Amino acid sequence: MRTEEFDFALPERLIAQHPPESRGASRLLYVHGGALEDCRFADLLRLVSPDDVLVLNDTRVIKARLFGSKDSGGRVEVLVERVLNGHEVLAQVRASKSPKTGSRMLLEEALQVEVLGRADEFFLLRFAGEEPVLELLERHGRLPLPPYIAHAADAGDEQRYQTVFAREAGAVAAPTAGLHFDDAMLQALRDKKVQIAYVTLHVGAGTFQPVRTEYIREHAMHSECYEIPQATVDAIIRVRGAGGRVIAVGTTSLRALESAAQNGELQAGSGETKIFITPGYRFKVVDVLLTNFHLPRSTLLMLVCAFGGMEQMLAAYRHAVEKEYRFFSYGDAMLIERGQQ
C-alpha cells in the first residue's frame, strides 16, 4: 500500500492547542458496524458492558526536553528518547553541528552531560554525578509537548498532559486517549463492574513522525519498551470466559497487548516492540479501541485503518473534519469496534 492512501485534508484550526476545560468534556465519535454516532465522552459509560475489561497505559511522561550548549559554545536542544539506566539516556540532539563522541554539554545551566556515542539518529549521553537521571530530569527538564502544539509547556500542561493514572516514568509523549479520564469516570466504570487493567508502554518521540516512504512496507518503526502484568493477562482471560470484550485505551495499549501475543497467546512480561500494524493485520487480543484522532500519513492512522476497516475509518475522519471535531493530543476521541477479519 502507498503512504498517500492514508492522507487527508485537515484544517489547521481543528488541531487542539489546549485541553478542554475539564477532563472528560470532549466529544466522542462512536464507529461501529458501518455507523458513525456523534456522542460525548461521558457516553462511554453506556457503551461499555459489565463483562468488559478496559486496558489503560500507566506510563508517565518525563520532562525530557533540555536546552543548553556544547563545550565548543554552540547551542543545543536535547530530547531524551529513553532512560537506559541511572545515568545514561538515548536522546535526539539538535544543533548546528552534531556533537562528537567524547564531547560535553551543559544543559539548563546545571547538568554536565558527556556524549558517549551514537546509535542511528540517537545519541548516547551520560549525566554526571550520583543523582539518578530521572530525578535530574524532573527538576531541570521541560515537558515535551508534541510539535503541532504551538505554545511552550506551562503549569497547566504539566497537569493535563499526564493521565490521572500515570505511575511508571519513561514516556516522552502521553498516551493521549487516557487524558480524557478523570477519577470520577474511572470509579463509575468500576461501579458498573467494568474491569480496569493496566499495561505499560513508554511512548517514544517516533509516535509523531509521519511515514515518509512511498510504500508503507518501507517504513522503519522506532523500538519502544512495554510490560504486561500477569494480573492484566488474568483479567483478559476472565473477561474472555464471560463473553466480554477487551477495550484498549489508546493505540499504545493496543500495541503492547498485540506485541505480547505475537506467538498466538497473550503472555505476561516485558519486551521491546517495533510492531507496525497496517491493513491486513489479524488482531489477537483487542476487540474495541478508544483513541484520539491521528496525524495524516502516520503509523497510528494506519493502525486504526487496520482495526476498523480502511473505508470506514477514512469515512470517519472525513466526518470528523466536517463536524469539526478537535484533533490530536488535546482533541476529541473515537470509540471503534473492530472490523471483520
Structure description:
The protein is α/β, with parallel strands linked by helices. It folds into 2 domains: 3-61 and 156-337, QueA-like (3-Layer(aba) Sandwich), CATH 3.40.1780; 65-140, Thrombin, subunit H (Beta Barrel), CATH 2.40.10. It contains 8 helices and 17 strands. The strands form 3 sheets. A 9-stranded mixed beta sheet has the order 2-1-17-16-14-3-12-13-15. Strand 8 (104-107) and strand 9 form a beta hairpin. Helix 7 (299-308) crosses helix 8 (310-322). It is globular, with a radius of gyration of 20 Å. The protein starts with 26 loop residues before the first strand and ends with a strand.
What is this entry, summarized?
This protein is α/β, with parallel strands linked by helices. The protein has helices at residues 44-47, 133-140, 155-160, 183-191, 230-241, 251-259, 299-308, 310-322; strands at 27-32, 35-40, 53-57, 59-61, 65-70, 75-83, 88-95, 104-107, 111-119, 122-127, 168-171, 195-201, 224-228, 246-249, 269-273, 288-292, 333-337. The chain is globular, with a radius of gyration of 20 Å.
Topology:
Blueprint: E1 27-32, E2 35-40, H1 44-47, E3 53-57, E4 59-61, E5 65-70, E6 75-83, E7 88-95, E8 104-107, E9 111-119, E10 122-127, H2 133-140, H3 155-160, E11 168-171, H4 183-191, E12 195-201, E13 224-228, H5 230-241, E14 246-249, H6 251-259, E15 269-273, E16 288-292, H7 299-308, H8 310-322, E17 333-337
Parallel strand pairs: 1-17, 3-12, 3-14, 4-11, 14-16
Antiparallel strand pairs: 1-2, 5-6, 5-8, 6-7, 7-10, 8-9, 9-10, 12-13, 13-15, 16-17
Helix pairs in contact: 7-8
